[in-house]
Amino acid sequence: MKEKTGKLSILLKGLIKENPVFVLVLGTCPTLAVTDSVIRALSMGIAATVVLLCSNMAISALRKVIPDKVRIPAYIVIVAGFVSVVQMLMHAYLPDLFTALGTYLALIVVNCIILGRAEMFASKNTVVDSALDGIGMGLGFTLALFCMGAIRELLGVGTFCGIEIPVLKDFAVSFFTQSPGGFFVFGVLIAIVNKLTKGKVKKHMGCAGCPSRAACHKDACVEEGK
Questions:
Q1: pLDDT tens digits for range 114-136
Q2: Backbone φ and ψ of 159, nearest 5°
Q3: H helical segments located in 158-213
Q4: How far is residue 79's CA from residue 188's CA, in Å, rounded to a whole number?
Q5: Do 49 and 139 form a contact (C-beta atoms < 8 A)?
Q6: What separation in angstroms does the CA of 5 have from each of 9, 13, 81?
Q7: How far apart are alpha carbons 35 and 33 in whole angstroms?
Q8: Distance between CA 59 and CA 74 in Å, rounded?
Q9: What are the C-alpha distances in Å from 12 to residues 79, 93, 159?
Q10: For residue range 173-199, what is the model confidence (pLDDT) as tens digits?
């Protein structure tokens, strides 16, 4: 029972408690860039989730083989391989979405969420747990993109997934589809999530899980390491 509860916790923590966008504030570049519409937002979320799941499993399986000194370059090569596969599949079967996502699809390679989970979780846990972590964090990322995309499209264009909403269409405010509107919605959602979690996650997040802890000379990190 405890094992099942533990695995469920790994799967669900990425949705709200440790949401990669609204709590950990990672992957903000694609979050702000592709959330002017629900379809683009969901497409990016699903693509990133697939890459996150596959890379987590691969890195976990190879964690005892990859030399510690070259682990980051190795992670990037693994992630880049899966991103290339996703790109080719989308280019072949979903050309419109491939064009809509543009450069941001290729930039999944250096997405902080994927590299962060590889360093902080996949490199230290089993393949199964890493797969659950990948799915959970991917769903959390997709949920965040969906929320931002829905709000920005509804208020900025008056549509949802391209379908016109008569009442909202007449009162659409283009501000929400522009960059300042993206930052505004992003900030409001972070505030709401912080209120729901009462800031508990940030209080308990220290230097222990930071990938750069070994190279950090801040007093807080040094003190925590004692």
A1: 999 999 999 999 999 999 999 99
A2: -130, 165
A3: 166-169, 179-197, 200-204
A4: 32
A5: yes
A6: 6, 12, 33
A7: 6
A8: 9
A9: 23, 31, 30
A10: 999 999 999 999 999 999 999 888 876
